[in-house]
Amino acid sequence: MSTNKIIYTEEKHDYPITLYQATNGLFTVQYGKQLDTALDYAEAAAKLGEAIMHACACDGLIDNEVE
Predict the structure, then answer these.
(1) Which of 15, 20, 24, 43 has the fewest beta carbons closer than 10 A?
(2) What is the Cα–Cα distance from 34 to 61, expressed in whole angstroms?
(3) What does residue 41 show for φ and ψ, rounded to 5 degrees?
(4) What one-character DSSP code corresponds to residue 62?
């Protein structure tokens, strides 16, 4: 069984975003209640970026009305 180490965490949005890496090298991204597990590096990067972008959009920091 592998254990997870917290690599990155951010709690400034409504829901915390956390990136974990297991001793087997795979990653987990947690965004609020959403938990994506057994991710390789590229998958984890995409999920982490998606969570950060979504949180910023929900906070009104991203202008989604740009044409």
Answers:
(1) 24
(2) 22
(3) -55, -50
(4) S
- C-alpha 66/C-alpha 63 separation (Å) is 6
Q: Residue 2: pLDDT above 80?
A: no
User: Positive or negative CA dihedral for 29, 45, 38, 4?
Assistant: negative
SS3 of 30, please?
Answer: strand
The percentage of residues in the chain with a pLDDT greater than 70, rounded to a whole number, is: 96
Angle at 61 between CA 15 and CA 63, to 5 degrees: 130
pTM of the complete model: 0.87
